Amino acid sequence: MLTAKALLSLLAACATLANGAAVPADKVLVFEGPFPLNSTIEGRSSDDHLLVKRATCNRGGASIYLGDIDEMVRQLQNDYPDQLSYLPARSYVGWNRGEARICAQNRYYADNTHVKRWEAGWAANVVRNECCPGSPSYCGGGTQQGHGDSGLAIDISVMHKTGTCNF
Question: 157: closest CA among 68, 55, 89, 38?
Answer without folding.
Answer: 55
